[in-house]
Each structure stands twice: as C-alpha cells, then as structure tokens.
Amino acid sequence: MTLFLFLHSESIYQLLSQTTPENTSKNYAGYSIDPKTRYTRANLSSIQTNQVQHLYDVDKFNPSIKNQKSRLSPVRQDSVNGFEELLRWCQKHTAGYENVTINDFTQSWTSGLALCALIHHFRPKLIDMSSLDESSAVHNHQLAFSILEKELGIPPVMSASDLAKSDQIDKLSMVLYLTQVQNAFAVQAKGKV
Hints:
This protein has 193 residues and is mostly helical. Helices cover 48% and strands 0% of the residues. The chain is elongated, with a radius of gyration of 21 Å.
C-alpha cells in the first residue's frame, strides 16, 4: 500500500510540473465548495468515503464526557451551532421585509428577495426593494450577486438561474456564501465605529 501511495504521489508531482497558465482553467467564478467544479477530470465516483475517512483530521468523540447535550461529536456540534447562528443572523437582518421568510439555506433563497434584503439592510442605497418582483428570481439574484461582487468582493458561488431553482441549491454552498456576506458586513460595521 505504501508503494502504491508513493507512486501515486510521484505521478501527481509530474503532472504538477506540466501545469502552466495556458493549460489551467481560468473559470474561478465557477468554482464552489463542491470538488467536481474544480477537478473536472477526476473520477470521483471511484473513491468511496470509507476509503479516505481515516485521512480526515478531526477530534475524536470522547464518550467519557458527562452531560452531553447531543450525541454529535464536538466538531459536528460546532458546525450545527454555526449553521444555526448564521440562520438566526439572516433571519434577524431580513425581518420585516415583504415576501422574505428565512427558514433554511435552500428554499428560503429561491426568489432572490432574501439576499437583496440582506444587502438592503446594511446598504439601503444599493437596492430599491420596492422595485423588485418575487417572480423575477433570476434578475433578483443577478442584481444581488453583482452588488456583492462589486461592493464587497464576494464572487457568486453558483449561477443566478441555479439559485432560482430550489432543487438546484446546494446548502453548503449557500452557507459558505452567506458566511462571506456576514463577515464582509461585520468588517464594514467595525470600520464605521
């Protein structure tokens, strides 16, 4: 097994030396947390989770800890708490906006109004919420994406048309994107103090 890994890593290093700017993909905006967007030629279906799970660097669950609130590992519990905190942040800053109700990281974002409401809450001069129509989801998303990229330097994680379809929204991509939005607005708020 060790010889196999050594030969495999050597073949990767040989490929790396052949990498030049001319033969490297330049579609950075199309990249997301999903590895399939970055490694288009890799056969990811040939790799099973149980084959690489031992490579993950996570703290092991300690069964001796008493009074655990959850059966989740501490790392998993932190992730769940982080998701809930982000969801509450989004709900807090979009409360009161017409046709905006945030309950999750997928279907609540399909119309584009929630993302526009977040921007409007922090930078009201950038978006006229009264001019937006709930049925124009692609337009709403494109508007929000262009503002967030231009004003805050946050590139979109998926296309506006994919985000307008509730069955196309990747929860982790949305969490990643909204975390960047949250961080950018937090930095701006600190700069004004």
